[in-house]
Amino acid sequence: MRHVDIYHAIADRTRRAILDELVDRSGQSLFEICGRLIMKHGINSSRQAISQHLDVLEAAGLIRTRREGRSKLHWFVGAPLKAIGQRWPVSTDEDTSHSTEEDIEK
Amino acid sequence: MRINLSGVAVDDQQKALRFYTETLGFRVKHNIPLGEHSWITVVSEEAPEGTELVLEPAAHPAIGPYRKALVEDGIPFTSFAVDDVGAEHERLVAKGVRFVQPPTDLGTVITAVFDDTCGNLIQIMEEKAQA
């Protein structure tokens, strides 16, 4: 499988929303992920487009998939994100009030 | 024109009849032997004169790959309306039904998805009262 770096993987609002939803509940099908994106985020991309986003996230190591019964389910894996904090450590006395809301690029 | 029938393709009609009546609680409306298969329909106890659900044999070779692809992506074959998804989930889990998606609040609706043991995923949906 091709490798995708995590910066590319999380540089997209839809992919971040997918990770948010998988943190909310682990082990979701493509159908459930698409439903949550439409109903909770107003993201109405096609199933095929969401499937491609999932491929990118999987290639970056941020999700893994497993078969349960005959369904393919998706899990969030946070470990690759540690590299960000290691590269740019946050000291404890820093002002952390800066907003990380997603309005920046909307 | 009226919609009187809806259908679900099932691996085994007799097994499906048991699941859709004994487990889900629908009532048999028609059960007519037609050669190798039967014409079987069930209705809701809440609407016995309403739309009938046909338990169709999944015999056509195209149905296998079609249903396999739906199940792989977690896509339900059809959806039923319930008043309380949480209560239905609890009732069905107690009867041994396997849910691939537990009750999930999607804003205007609450949904859940279970395995009908006959080759399909089925969604149940509750429309939330408007605040």
Description:
The complex is a heterodimer of chains A (106) and B (131). By secondary structure, chain A is of the alpha+beta class. In chain A, 44% of the residues lie in helices and 11% in strands. Chain A has one domain: Arc Repressor Mutant, subunit A, CATH 1.10.10. In chain A, strand 1 and strand 2 form a beta hairpin. The longest helix of chain A is centred in the middle third of the chain and has 13 residues. By secondary structure, chain B is an alpha/beta fold. Chain B has a 4-stranded mixed sheet with strand order 1-4-3-2, with helices on one face. Chain B has a 4-stranded mixed sheet with strand order 5-8-7-6, with helices on one face. Chain B contains 3 helices and 8 strands. Chain B has one domain: 2,3-Dihydroxybiphenyl 1,2-Dioxygenase, domain 1. The mean pLDDT of chain B is 96. At the A-B interface, helix 3 and strand 2 of A face helix 2, strand 6 and strand 7 of B.
In the CATH hierarchy, the architecture of chain B is Roll
What fraction of the residues of chain A are assigned to beta strands by DSSP?
A: 5-15%
Percent helix among the residues of chain B?
Answer: 10-25%
CATH topology type of chain A: Arc Repressor Mutant, subunit A
The CATH superfamily of chain A turns out to be Winged helix-like DNA-binding domain superfamily/Winged helix DNA-binding domain
Report the count of strand segments of chain B.
8
The assigned CATH architecture of chain A is Orthogonal Bundle
**Quick one: overall form of chain B?**
globular
- Could you give the order of the helices and strands of chain A? HHHHEEH
Count of DSSP H/I helices of chain B: 3
Order of strands across the main sheet of chain A:
1-2
Counting helices, strands and paired strands, the structural category of chain B is alpha/beta
Number of strands of chain A: 2
Give the helix/strand class of chain A. alpha+beta
Mean residue pLDDT of chain B: 96
Largest sheet: number of strands, sense, barrel closure of chain A: 2 strands, antiparallel
Distance between the termini of chain B: 35 Å
Q: What gyration radius of chain B follows from the Cα positions, in whole Å?
A: 15 Å
**Poorly predicted residue ranges of chain A:** none
What is the CA–CA distance across the termini of chain A?
Answer: 31 Å
The domain count of chain A comes to 1
